[in-house]
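Narrative progress, year one. The postdoctoral researcher (J.K.) led the effort to move from monomer predictions toward full complexes, under supervision of the PI. The following entry was the first complex the group processed end to end, covering 493 residues in total.
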Amino acid sequence: MDPYKVLGVSPSASQEEIKKAYRNLVKKYHPDKFAGTDLEEVAKEKLQEVNEAYAILMGGEVGRKRSSTHQSQSNQEYSYNQGWASFQQVRSFINMGNIAQAEAILAGIPIRNAEWYYLNGLILWQKGWYSEARMNIQKAVSMDPNNQEYRNAAIRINNAFNMYQSQSFGRRSSDDFCDCCASLLCADCLCECFGGDLIPCC
Amino acid sequence: MFGYILPFKPELKIKEYGCYRSYYCGVCKELGREYQQICRFSLNYDIVFLAILFSSFSEAKERISLERCIVNPVKKRPVVQKSSALEYATAIHVALIYYKLMDNWDDEKRMSSLLAAQFLKPAFRKGLKKYKSQYEVIFQQLSSLKALEREKVPFVDQACQPFAEMMAQLFQYPECDDLDCRTLKWMGYNLGKWIYLLDAYQDISHDKKQRNYNVLLEKYGRDLAPEVIRQSCREEVEFVLKTCLLEIGKAYELLNICKNHAVLENIIYLGLNNRMQEILNDRRDRSHGSI
């Protein structure tokens, strides 16, 4: 691994520049931004790489230590017994990103309570089945309206939807203001052609 | 695929437009060179996007030369030269087109499709030799798509699954590392889902008239007027489509892209959104024009 390349800085970069690049990348790869799908794991690994590169460049060992504990955790094998399957197991498989396993256990649980629908919703979301996921989460909320966890998930799903316009999408095309200025200037030029003046100073 | 993946032209800089053009010409020439001249007629924008995306993982600068073209024999244009990314993108394209034509023949017994498919057959065989696993994925997923259509599945997510899964597999460009492949897989899944659903929404009237399968007709009622169906499915369709675009954008942020940032961002953040808005609001403002 070339730590300079990972951080996107030149080998002659100053400590300040390295710190700045590091902070930007940490923000960029923050796993919370990618929560709920397979991208979360990818983002975590990217972040780990960034931490390691930073640790190397800054002469520390912090990043490396953190990465090794993370590795051992995700490689841990979980054994389970279908008969004793529980929602807790489903949750731990979801957290590990092992969706197929989580789905299999959940399907084996006969109770269809709010938690079942909630977990099913999380699994479906991770598979990219957004419509069904939303229905399951909404069902969980309606069955247990006081549960903050379910309500948060419902809000998160709808927020993603609302965020759509405001965030990156359409970010470059929001130049209505410029359009407005341009048309004013245009109008001014036209007026001047005809001997009048809309904007006196130009 | 259906030609939904376009840049948003008003926001392209001239140099970005030139870059897009030279990839476009590169893909077209590659189709003629590697397969047959006839394949060049099937060129669409989706495949150009794939070619640019896959090319952007390599740091090496693209080799570009000025070449003439049958369409415009007088003026020489910049053309991106052969690369493994172009090769991969065109091979996928040939398979998709071939299966699409055969599908048209199976469904509607359109003679022209069968004829065109026959012309494409040698090209298809050639691609199959090199990219066997990818061609098999396409065949499998399109078969399950047909099975779904026969069953008249009325659920959006389930109906989108085969096409999305196919794209997820095809997006895993063989020359990428593991992390990029996983990210590409998610990007492909969401893009496939987005294309399939957008196409279903756009085809509501047509499919109703032709009595074709369309998941939105099955779910919201085949007997209603197309206007009513569009209105009642709009919320769900919009929710899924926008979520897909958000996820595509997130995936893009995680990719190790080395070049062509501006063009790719234009397509992903503006082009897709613009195309979606046009179809959802049933307008064609022609803002992108022809490329």
